Amino acid sequence: MPISTTGRIRNSIAELGWRDAVWHALARLLQRVPGKRCALHRYQFVAQGVAPGSLCGGRGKSIVVAPCLGMETLPPASQRPPRPPATLTARFRQGARCLLASAPPTSQTLLAGWLWMVHGACQEDEVRARYVLPSLQSSWDLDVWVHPELRGGLVFARLWEEANTLLHEQGVRWSCSRISRFNRTSMAAHARLGTLDLGTATFLRCGHWQWMLASLPPYLHLSRRADSFPSFIFDTSGLPHIPSLELTCRILKQ
Amino acid sequence: MPHSETVNEALETSVRQILRATLGLGQRPLTAATPLLGSLPELDSMAVISVITALEDHFGITVSDDDIHARHFATVGSLVDFIHAITRPDR
User: Fold this and answer.
1) Can you give the pTM of this predicted structure?
2) At a CB cut-off of 8 Å and minimum separation 6, what does B49 contact?
3) Is the ipTM of this complex over 0.90?
4) Per the CB < 8 Å rule, is B66 touching A106?
5) DSSP assignment, residue A79?
6) Less Cβ around it within 10 Å: N or C end of chain A?
7) How far apart are CA A131 and CA A14, in angstroms?
């Protein structure tokens, strides 16, 4: 049965809170602008502890996770999620690495999922913004994707477990990322993983113009050129260390 | 009431209790038709591992990795059917 407009608004307020529900309604309205000329994005920045240990408790070993360092080692476009090649090339150019999860041989799908990581700084794909990580003990993770048919399985946990191991070996103790405040599932999942909130930012784009309003410096930014963007500095050096990944599991069970 | 129905009801009650305890659902109503994955915000792929572990501990079963699939977590009923299939004596 189709949900009425009133019902949809009521659900949206219940799920997102009235403030984000209003932003979400505006974002949906802007999606109707012809030519996708306008868009509104509202981000939550978070930091996730990186610590030794196992997230899967030894499960999911048939899911092989391997690093990918360049376009030539990515699976063919038909097997990967729809991302413009220019976006992927730009990620590699800024030093990003990708972890590829291969599904067990019994599965119909070849690429089970991927996760991207970058040190130092990350140029945002979706809006004009740069995330700067001054501490060598921090990294940025982005575009965590799991094949739709394998969601609810062990792919995400295996990807994060491998990323966690790799990052910890490199001395990283916090992995920062941005999530959409309109994605309540992702917001709730991150909260259960014990992430720390680092701030929020709202971007409104119309044509070449971009307006940004954030809860952290630079707070406000207006631009209309590709080379003009706000830089957010996320310094995790003052954050406490998480002793083990099992602590995350205990948080999950609470 | 046939014995198998009593067993199924007991199993369903246990599964509901485990879901409530593991996911912190309180007294939220759960019936066989209640949708889980994709509808219950508390149940994501990480929480699935916690639920599987709790089910294994409670029923003394082992769930293989290949069996951890979204289709078993579609509804409370599908999860009960899945556990029932594993715990069945003639399996």
Assistant:
1) 0.86
2) A55, A56, A57, A59, A154, A157, A252, B68
3) no
4) yes
5) G
6) N
7) 31
